[in-house]
Each structure stands twice: as structure tokens, then as C-alpha cells.
Amino acid sequence: MSESPQSVGVCLLGCGTVGGGVVSVLTQQRALLKQRTGIDFVLRHVVVKSREEYPPNHAELPMSLDANGAIDDPNSNVIVELIGGTGVAFTFVERALKLGKPVITANKALLAVKDRSCSSLRGRRTPRSHSKPPPAAGSRSSTSSSAA
Question: What is the pTM of this model?
Fold first, then answer.
């Protein structure tokens, strides 16, 4: 079984504290990720809004100031939104979804305000987090109340 690993181009929007951590994982642990998943995650673009926001190691990274170009790049298979907020972040998420590209975000404000818009662009419901686990997922039922 000598299959070559699948390659996935990653476009990172934002490179602050969280984005810098994502960059570190994707670059420093690339071989380990490939070994464990069979997928070669290739960092195609790291997009920031100005050169002043370039990280210290920017010379080693595929830096860009053009988010639209990075999203539109056919080699950007997955878009990771780490900008925050609901304005420009939604504009870029909307663009990616309209192109049929998967988007990864932890932007709770964006999901709270624009969930329906994002869902309609994908044609299905977006995954939601739950504040409580479902009853079968570790919460105690009423049958254990007499044990106290």
C-alpha cells in the first residue's frame, strides 16, 4: 500500500495569537500530521491586513495582503478564518462558501449573528456547539439520585 498522501491547501485569514499557533502547528508538525492523517496540510496563504501585522517569521511564510486572491486561489482547499468580528470576517467567509470551499472558524460572534446566512450558502445547517451534553453523553439521569 504505497498511496501518496492527499494534499490539502490551507488559506489562513489572520495571524494574531491563535493564527500564529496554527501556523506553528502546520509548519513545525507537518510531517507528524501527515504521518497520523495521511494528509499533507500545505500552508498556501497567510493573510493579514497590513505589513505591520506580519509575524516575526514572515520571510518563511506565504504572506499575503490580498484575502480575496488567497480565497480564490484554486490551491486553497480549506479556509481558516481567524480574523474575528462580524464585518470583514463574514465577507471573506461568504466568498469562500460561495466558491464551495469549507471554512473553519471559532468566531462565535460571526456564528451567532450570521449563522443563517452561512447555512444558506452551504445549503445545510452549520455545526453548532452545545452548552450541555445530551443526556446519553455523561450527564446523570434521575435513576442515580438515590445513591447520594
Answer: 0.75
**Which residue matches cell numbers 452551504?**
122
Is 134 among the domain residues?
no
* Cα-to-chain-centroid distance, residue 60: 21
Domain contains 102: yes
CATH number at residue 23: 3.40.50.720
pLDDT values of the chain reduced to their tens digit, one per residue, 148 residues = 444 569 999 999 999 999 999 999 999 999 999 999 999 999 999 999 999 999 999 999 999 999 999 999 999 999 999 998 889 999 999 999 999 999 999 888 887 776 666 666 655 434 443 333 344 444 343 344 444 3
Q: Structural domain of residue 82, as residue ranges?
A: 6-125
Q: What is the count of structural domains for the chain? A: 1
